[in-house]
Amino acid sequence: xxxxxxxxxxxxxxxxxxxxxxxxxxxxxxxxxxxxxxxxxxxxxxxxxxxxxxxxxxxxxxxxxxxxxxxxxxxxxxxxxxxxxxxxxxxxxxxxxxxxxxxxxxxxxxxx
Length: 112
Hints:
repeat; Histone H3 K4-specific methyltransferase SET7/9 N-terminal domain; MORN; MORN repeat-containing protein 5
């Protein structure tokens, strides 16, 4: 069982595994989760949702570091794809987005 407030760990019935801060019985503050699909997230939580600054490592090798809203890339962030391509700039609802503050986001390919 998880304390309503404080720090703790929990494995959910769907296979997700969370370790971090709790408030009022929900993930809230800072924490890390391994999702059942193999994705990993470490960062801010708000009322049980990955929201704020964080880092996602997807099971397919892609990674994202930046702002999220309810586990979706939303705000400013950088996504590096397993293919070597990367995008840094604005995101809205998990899709690349150019904003007035970021009129020309940078897209580049890296061949390591």
